[in-house]
Specification:
Blueprint: H1 8-19, H2 27-115, H3 120-136
Length: 137
């Protein structure tokens, strides 16, 4: 066989094929050779499977953590909405109550002056108004 351009790999393969002595391979020997090849592949697949299992377990843990975070966020969102609703419903009421307390304080002050501070009821009412003011702050 004459080749103008020879590839060194091709030349080596041709030389090796010429050197191989032909012998008959039994079916049992062929089965053993194939079995050895598959064992190597099986071991590699086992390692790949182990890696995938580790990755899969890590993904499961991450998903569980994200689910817990999402549940907490949903809970916080519900709490915020509840507070917003309360403020919307009662915000005006609170402003009105503050105005009422201011008016009551002014009237108690006026009554206290006219009564010369002798009424125990006025003092008791002033104390109760002070408690209400502190609750609204």
């Amino acid at each position: 066989m004459i080749m103008k351009k020879t590839n060194s790999t091709a030349v080596k393969v041709i030389k090796k094929t010429k050197q191989i002595k032909h012998r008959k391979v039994t079916i049992d020997e062929l089965a053993l050779m194939i079995g050895k090849g598959f064992r190597g592949v099986d071991e590699r697949f086992k390692k790949v499977d182990e890696r995938f299992n580790k990755i899969e377990n890590g993904i499961v843990l991450i998903k569980e953590r994200l689910d817990r975070i999402e549940m907490k966020l949903d809970s916080l969102e519900r709490r915020i909405l509840a507070i917003e609703d309360i403020l919307t419903e009662h915000g005006k009421d609170i402003r009105e109550i503050k105005g009422d307390i201011k008016d009551i304080k002014a009237e108690l002050k006026t009554l206290k002056k006219t009564d010369s501070g002798n009424s125990d009821k006025i003092i008791l009412l002033e104390q109760r108004v002070k408690v209400l003011e502190n609750r609204l702050i």
